[in-house]
Structure formats: structure tokens, C-alpha cells
Sequence to fold (398 residues):
Amino acid sequence: MSRARAIAEWLAPATPRERALVARFLVGAFATFYLLVRLRHFGDASRHAPGDFVPVGVCVLLARPLPAIATWGIALVTLMLGIAFTVGARVRHVGPLFFAGLLWVMSYASSWGKILHSENLVLFHVGIFAVAGDVTNERVAGWALRAASVATVLTYFVAAVTKLRSGGGAWLTGEALGGWLAWDALRKIELGSFHSPLAAYVAGSPVLLQVLALYTMLVELGAPVALVSSRLAKTWGVLAWLFHVGILATMAIGFFYPLSGVAFVPLLPVERWSLLRRAATWRPRPST
Amino acid sequence: MFSRGDVGHVNELAHVVLVLADGARRPASPSMVGSVEPMIAMAIVRADVERGTAADLCVAVAGRARMAQPNVVAVEVVTSTFDSRRYFSDAPDARTPLSLSIHARCEVPR
Fold:
């Protein structure tokens, strides 16, 4: 096999179509549920002073905040599109519209001084499955799942590289992790919010910090191994999920997309779960 | 995910403090500041301090505090410098800021 063909085969391997449909169903369901649960956050910007508006991403097109009727309207239409995308209705048209809506509402919500980077991965995944459309064959399923897997892996790998570039050895010794754990708990207390009762204990234990820092680097720097084989993908997925459980326990920060497991779905043979396969491929019977 | 350098142990925080009738000081909750998300609330306070509009934020929080907590007599928008190592120690004044700068103070209307 020529090198070019081998690369093409890796980028778009023949993959069961049902796997991509199940992954799209779960990604769509997560994104829609996330939007529903945080609908007020996405739809209502009235709590912010207009002077706080610092548009990011696609919202740089705006010179000033939108009126409430527009923000609520866009959020509600996006929610409806999310439901349609999840159940697979007219995906070729609905998918890009849902992606555009989600990109807009997430960018707009991040335009008030705090960018929620944790929302980027679900957005990437929705975008990939929107482009894949109806997933007409095994090659389309293959490239969509490969692209989504690479996106998942890159979010971790880039985070590790950035940590090492900005913090250097302090991220390997646990010193930087300890500093962040203590500072994050402190500011949450002073901001009148919930904090993890474990934070102070962990931040005060150099041994625990060293172990957790090395584990963090193992998961983040080691993320690309998940692209090597299905077995390594499963192992890495479990380690990465535990990493997020640890963050939740010690910092009271919930990265809900990976914690739900959906962030790792493109790496896994999820079509083997018959309930998910039936849910993702279910269509109403035409009336006779 | 956290992808920044070592934050160290001495840092500044812009935040809002509620002053109670007995003189005790309590943090204003994120929702009183303007968002249920603590990091967004922090960004709101920082932006108002940087823009010189801390007095406006103070009045807005005082209005919300009046409805939520009857024993609040005043609100302060402050920047505190904390030592996070000392903060979690057993020292009696561990949670007292190393320094405090008050940007705005307003009474809660009754």
C-alpha cells in the first residue's frame, strides 16, 4: 500500500455506519441537554451591564449587545434545532444550522469577560457530525469519527503542552497544581461559592500533589495513544474520565462533557450497545 | 482544563463583601453580583473595578442584598491580596487579607 493510501485509510477508515450514528445521537443529546439546562444563562444576558460586553469569536460582528428578544429567540431556536439534530431529522440541513446556532449562543455567553473553553470540544463534535450529514456510508462514518477522536485527543494534548510551556517543571513537581488547587478554593470561598473540602488537604500534601501532577501529565500528554488502537482508546478513556472525577472532587469543577463520557464516545465501539443503536437509528414507521 | 503557569501563593482578588449589623463581613454570593457562575461573577467585579464603575456595582449588589439578607447594612467592592498557604493554615487570622483596597462602599437602603 502506498504511503498516501495508508494515510487516506487512516483518516477515513471503513467504520460501521451505526457507530457514527450512535456517536452523533449522544453528542447531539448532550449538546441539547446542556443548552436546555443552561437556557437562562444562554438566553438572558440582562444581568450584565452593557459595558461588560467584550465580544469574542463570531460575536465580534456585534458592536453592542443584542436585545433580550433576540438572545432568547436564538437560544430557543437553537434548542429546537438540537432536538431535531439529535433524533436525526433532516440532518443535512438541520446539522449546520444547529452548529451555527450553538456557536453563536456559546460565543455570545462567553462575551462577558469569561470564556468557557470547556464548551469548545462539544462544539467541535457537533460541527464534525453536522458536516458528516446523513453518514451515507462507512467512509463518511470513518472520517467523522476519526476527526472527532482527533479533536478529543488534541484538547488534552494541547492543554499539557501549554502547561509545560507556561509553567515548566512546576507542573511536573506538583507545585503548580498545589498553587492552583489552593487559589481556586480560596477565591471560591471569597466569592461566596461552593468549594471542595478536599482542596486544602490535597494542596498541603506534596506527595499527593506529585502523584496527581504526574497523573495529569500522563493523561494529557499521553492522549495521542488513544488513536493507536481500540484497546488503548478504552484504557485512555477510563484514565481521562477518572482525571475529571479527580478534578470534580478536589476543585469542585465539573467538566460535564467528559464526565458524561460523551467526549470519549468517538473513540469507542458504541454501536455494540443495542439500546443506543436502536435509539440512534429509530425512525417512526410510515403510516399505511 | 487549567493550562496556565504556576499561579504562586500570593494573589489579588476583586470581590464583593457584605457588612452585617454586628460588624461581621461575609462574601456576596455570585448571584448577588450578577451571575450564578462564580468565575463570571469574578469577571464582573474585576471589569467594574478596572472601568472605575465599582460604585454602580455596589449599589446593584446592595439592592439585591436588601431583598436576600435583612441583616446586611453595607456593601463593599474590594480588592484583597491573599496568601493561599496561610489562608488554609491554623493561624487565628489565616483568612485575613494581606492587604485590602476598598473601591466602593454603599449603605443598604432600609
Observations:
- The longest helix of chain B spans residues 54-68.
- The first strand of chain B starts at residue 10 and ends at 20.
- The helical segments of chain B are 30-33, 38-51, 54-68, 84-87.
- Residues 74 and 108 of chain B are 5 Å apart (CA to CA).
